[in-house]
Amino acid sequence: MRHFLPLALVCLLGSLLPMAPIAAAQEPPSPVVFTPRPDSEIPAGPFGDLVRKGEKIFTQTGKYAGKYVGNDLTCESCHLDRGRKPYAAPLWGAYVSYPRFRTKNMKVSRLGERIQGCFRFSMNGVAPPLAGDTIRSIVAYSFWMSKGAPVGTPLVGTGMYHMPPTSHKPDPFNGKKVYKARCALCHGADGLGASSGGDVAFPPVWGPRSYNAGAGLAKVGKLAGFIKMNMPLSKGDTLSDRDAWDVAAYVDSQPRPADPRKKS
Ligand code: HEC
Ligand code: HEC
Questions:
Q1: Among 185, 191, 171, 163, residue whose Cα is nearest residue 232
Q2: Ligand nearest 81 Cα, by number?
Q3: Is the pLDDT of residue 21 over 90?
Q4: Which helix (H) or strand (E) holds 186?
Q5: Residue 198, pLDDT score
Q6: What pLDDT shows up at residue 263?
Q7: Is the pLDDT of residue 183 over 70?
Q8: Contact 150, 85 (CB under 8 A)
Q9: Which protein residue's CA is at the shortest distance from atom 37 of ligand 1?
Q10: CB atoms near residue 205 (< 10 Å)
Q11: Ligand 2 contact via 157 beta carbon (within 6 Å)
Q12: What is the structure's pLDDT at 171?
């Protein structure tokens, strides 16, 4: 017993000490491609029920969480393919990235708090309570989708695409031309989108029923990255970087609801 403790300590130190410098010298891990499981694998039972409820709220947000929504968007309007599409801030990438520090509020946020933020800004609504059904179901859907994803390893397509820095000043005049040629067909020349039979077919990209000025997409760089990889719908990565920047600058120059943090 007298020899046991010091020996254990030596072993512990011996195994820990040399690790630190080696780990510091290592290359950062390369990003891994992750594919979430198909919906058909959502299990039966109470957990599966919560996941399916989360998916419904995600794709038909106005119908299933209407009291928290203040515009014509759904979560899927931006998190495409039911939250599965790489470079459209997929839910499988989100689950394994939280808690995370955010400069937006200068604190370490949990996933539920991050989702509250999208309700407040991207959905121009109000934050559902953290412990309530709405947030719990969306967190469950995100958790299920991330099943099997490695934690602490970067995944290809997490978050939005980061545009490489541009040397030109984004030009809304060229952006307007790009918008007319590549976007107006669906989102309307007036940016207000289009409905059919009371359902939103194409969401508004500006105006009173779109995301507000505090949302992530209200930043030109983030919007350019979203557009570059995802728009025109199903023709992602067909615009040049320059056109993606310019059309983002044009969309961003149009009116939208104010940032709720700036209202008196
Ligand atoms: C107008 C577009 C838009 C809408 C609508 C929207 N979001 Fe987001 N969401 C974003 C953007 C932009 C980000 C930031 C992604 C980044 O910074 O990489 C984000 C981030 C997130 C994240 C964190 C992702 C990550 O990888 O860090 C989650 C989770 C999320 N949103 C959930 C939701 C939910 C749930 C809804 C519906 C209630 C919703 N969002 C509606 C644009 C939107
Ligand atoms: C073929 C139709 C189509 C075209 C063309 C198209 N979009 Fe979209 N866009 C959509 C649809 C549909 C969604 C919502 C996706 C969903 O709900 O699954 C969307 C979502 C968006 C969003 C996020 C939600 C919102 O309303 O703000 C933005 C921003 C956007 N598109 C910008 C553009 C821009 C810029 C272009 C041109 C470069 C473009 N789109 C071209 C159909 C289109």
A1: 185
A2: 2
A3: no
A4: helix 184-187
A5: 87
A6: 67
A7: yes
A8: no
A9: 75
A10: 28
A11: no
A12: 98
pTM of the model: 0.91
Q: How long a stretch of residues is the chain? A: 264
Say if 39-145 and 172-262 have the same CATH topology. Answer: yes
Could you tell me the distance, in angstroms and rounded to a whole number, from the CA of residue 89 to the centre of ligand 1? 6
Closest residue by Cα to residue 54 from 108, 163, 132: 132
Q: Which fold has domain 39-145?
A: Cytochrome Bc1 Complex; Chain D, domain 2 (1.10.760)
Which pLDDT value is given to residue 24?
A: 52
Pocket of ligand 1 (CB under 6 A): 58, 61, 73, 75, 77-79, 89, 93-94, 97, 114-115, 118-119, 122-123, 138, 158-160, 211, 215-217, 222
In CATH, the architecture of 172-262 is Orthogonal Bundle (1.10)
Percent of the chain with pLDDT over 70: 89
Distance 35 CA to ligand 2 centre (A): 24
Cβ-count burial 41-60 (b if 16+ within 10 Å, e if not): ebeeeeeeebbbbbbebbbe
